[in-house]
Amino acid sequence: MATPDLVMYEEEYQQIKDTLQRLQVDSNAKIVFLVDKNGQQIATHGDMKGVDATSLASLTAGNVAATDGLAKLIGEKEFSILFHEGEKDNIHISLVAQRVILVVIFDEKSSLGLVRLRVKKASQELERTFEQLLKKAEADRGNMANRFDSPFAEITDEDIDSLFSE
Question: Above 80 in pLDDT, residue 146?
Answer without folding.
Answer: no
